[in-house]
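Entry: Caspase family protein
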Amino acid sequence: MRNLLRLCPLLLAFALLFGAGPAFAGKRVALVLANSAYQNAPSLVNPVNDGAVMAKTLKDAGFDVVDSRHDLTALDTRRVLRDFADATRDADIAVVYYAGHGIEVEGSNYLIPVDAKLERDTDVYDEALSLDRILVAVEPAKQLRLVILDACRDNPFGKTMKRTVASRGIGRGLAQVEPTSPNTLIAYSAKAGFTAQDGDGANSPFTIALSKHLTTPGLDVRRAFGFVRDEVLRSTGNRQEPFVYGSLGGEDVPLVPVKATAMATAAPASNPQVDMRRDYELALQVGNRPAWEAFLAQHPDGFYASLAKLQLDKIQAEQVHAAAIEKAKQAEAERDRLAALGAQKDAQARAEADAKAAEQAQLVAQKAKEQAQQQAAAAEQQRVSLAATAPSTAPASTAAPTGTNVASLSPAITPADLSRSVQTELGRVGCFSGQADGNWSTSSQRSLSQFNRYAGTKLDTKVASSDALDTVKSKPSRVCPLVCDHGFKADGDKCTKIVCGDGYLLNDDNECEKQRAAKPTKPATAKRDDSDDRPARQRRQSGGTAAGAAGGGAAGYGGGPGVAAAAGSSRASGSGQIFCNGTGCRPVNRGCHLEYRGGGGPGNDANAEVCY
């Protein structure tokens, strides 16, 4: 009876393991399609090999149904999809894997059977299978509908396919898709609009990574595809990035559940401390509040009781922090709402004060959570170390009084050290370029915000947390892109200066272009300027008038003093004089000028040409 009572908390914890944790997979079915031997396009080597690897991977993972087919015609593919849809009606998880050619037409994706000709763009509607047809086949599954497409290759019919409508678009790779059904994920071997690589071996990089990570027991399918993405980026030199479209709920959804550990037998153990340690490890595996409370109800004192209380404190701090985040969001939303409505200033001021108070409470809860997590982690590390040195005996501090701070056995990390560690890890993944000084400044917050953007996470950027450290550490390679200033180029993880060869210059597009030869300068040519020429003409006309007057005086029986003045003006200028008499007119000789002598009349010139 006593042994039965002792096992009651363990039975409760075991029930919590399956009742409070994530939903575990029930019936799982999979369809593997691989097309290599195309009749009207170049054949592909890897798809059939990739299909064989994925079929074996899913069978080894314990899937109830794994139907593997290759090199199917359009008619055969439709029949296989129809039969597979029947198998998914009572399934919890349904997976379709396809390797082969796929194309995008007018924003819709199509899988290409081996007998397709596709002489014109509209033939895809008759000879190919749309992605929507695949989604219909997995629709009945209850928990997860997963479609994996290793089909982001160049369109083999693109050069010969006739366009019935000039404006009909035929894209590169596959088009982005947003599933309309819940609990549906569609995984591409390469991001929409990009093509994938077949690799140098018998299998594509995408399939190799899938076989390693997708069926890891207990691993959420979204994290599995995250590991697949990282490995493909690493193996292809960042040239191919797999992508997943769709969303799931908050619970983990592994393709392969964690196997339940065998329950301890009811026979009394020879060492009570061994039972206590096993009970603790079982509660640690469950990891929620009811499991720890059940453990403390059975083992209220001692070393493991102190550890359990630290785990409870951590859970409490995490819950308080989550509540503080929610309250801060509500306060900010209320403040923004009042501001948008133009509420009275005192109401907006109260809302602003509430938002600031909620934000401060969130920061306090964040620090308390981090401290509790650090203490629990340090204590757990100490426990593991002690168990490794003496696995069959209880720790020396078993009889320690309740409330003993077990975390003091191992020094806890300080906030400055935590900030420095997060900065160092952010720098490793290319998101932080400053010095890891432990000061969580605005630049550090921007760096973590940039990490959130490119990693798809939602870490709190206001403080450096252990959650952030663990998340950044999980990324094996660069996350944030390398940005280089003008005049520099990316060289691995560094920016190097661009050096152009002789005769080349760096243009605004950061590229070296050949320097153009300078155009020969044209000699200056004299141009007629009417504005400058006009006074000269006027002066010549004026001189001519004076000479004409002089000539008129000679031929017209006398002249006036004005003629002499004109002659004097002409002499000063030294040009433009004309001498006229009864025989005609001629220019004044060089070195000569006209002087008015008076008189005038027939045979008596009023002006005389005087030479030096």
